[in-house]
Amino acid sequence: xxxxxxxxxxxxxxxxxxxxxxxxxxxxxxxxxxxxxxxxxxxxxxxxxxxxxxxxxxxxxxxxxxxxxxxxxxxxxxxxxxxxxxxxxxxxxxxxxxxxxxxxxxxxxxxxxxxxxxxxxxxxxxxxxxxxxxxxxxxxxxxxxxxxxxxxxxxxxxxxxxxxxxxxxxxxxxxxxxxxxxxxxxxxxxxxxxxxxxxxxxxxxxxxxxxxxxxxxxxxxxxxxxxxxxxxxxxxxxxxxxxxxxxxxxxxxxxxxxxxxxxxxxxxxxxxxxxxxxxxxxxxxxxxxxxxxxxxxxxxxxxxx
Length: 305
Ligand code: PPS
What we know:
The structure is a single chain. It is built from 13 helices and seven strands. The chain is an alpha/beta fold. It has one domain (about 5-295): Rossmann fold, CATH 3.40.50. The protein has a five-stranded parallel β-sheet, sandwiched between helices. The chain has a two-stranded antiparallel sheet with strand order 1-2. Strand 4, helix 5 (about 95-100) and strand 5 form a beta-alpha-beta unit. Helix 10 crosses helix 11. About 40% of the residues are buried. 3'-phosphate-adenosine-5'-phosphate sulfate binds next to helix 2, helix 6 and helix 12.
C-alpha cells in the first residue's frame, strides 16, 4: 500500500461528494467510486467494521448463523472465499466488485467492508435494502491491534514507535480515516434502522458470546437451536479460531504478506491489551481526546473486562 508513516492524509472527494482524508492510492479512489454504483441485493449480508475491530470473528459467526451452524462446511472453505470484499484495499489483487457482481443470484452474498458508511453503495444511503452488521471495538484496543497489523503486514509501511501510530490513529491518518467518524456515523444511522442494521460491540461479544450470537441470529431471522448456538460460540471462540486455518490466514493468499514471526493475525483477542502499550501520559492524553470527541455520544465502550 502506498501509505506512508509520515505522510499527511490527503483530502479526497468521492463521486457522491463525500470527503474524507485518505492515505490510500489512486486505485482505492477508483474502487470506491465504482463501488458507489454497485447494486445491492435484498438478501445481501454485510459485515462492516473499522479495521481490526473484529471483522473476521463476526464474519465467521454471521456465516455460520446463516448456514445452519455447519462448521464442517466452514472449515472446508477459506473465509475470504465465502465473503466478497467491498472497498477492497488497493494492496490486495482485484477490486472486489467483479467477484460480487459475478456472485450466483440464487445464493446470498456475504460481504465484508471497512468503508465508512458514507462510502457504501448509493442504494444503501437512504434506504434499508439488506442486512448489515457493524462491529465496533474500544478505540484503545482497536488502535493496538491495528498497530501490530501494520508491523506484520509486509504491504504496509512500518508504523514506527507506538506513540507515533497512536497519534495517527487519533488524527484519523489511516487508510479508512477516523475511527471516531466511522463508528459514530454507523451508530447514528443504525438507530433508525433496527431491522436492517445491527450494531455489536466486540467487548460484549467477549463477555457473553452466546447471548450476542442469539441476538444476531434473531436479527438475521435465522432460527438456531441452543445446540447450534453453542456450536457457533465454541467454533468462534478465540482459541478455536486461532488454530482454524480457514479463518486465521495461515492458508490464505495473505499468508505470504503477513509475517507471523512479527505478529500473528489472531494475535491476542483480548479486551484491555492496550494497557501493555499505552504509557501513563499517552493514556491521559488519549482519554482527554476521547472525552472531547465523544462528549455527545450515547454509545459507551468497555476498556477493561
Ligand atoms: S481485519 O484485518 O481488519 O479484518 O482484522 P479484524 O478481523 O477486524 O481484527 C483482528 C482482531 O480481532 C481479533 N479476533 C478475535 N478476538 C476475539 N475472538 C475471536 N474469535 C477473534 N478472532 C479475531 C484478532 O485477534 C485481532 O485482535 P488483536 O487484539 O490484534 O488480537
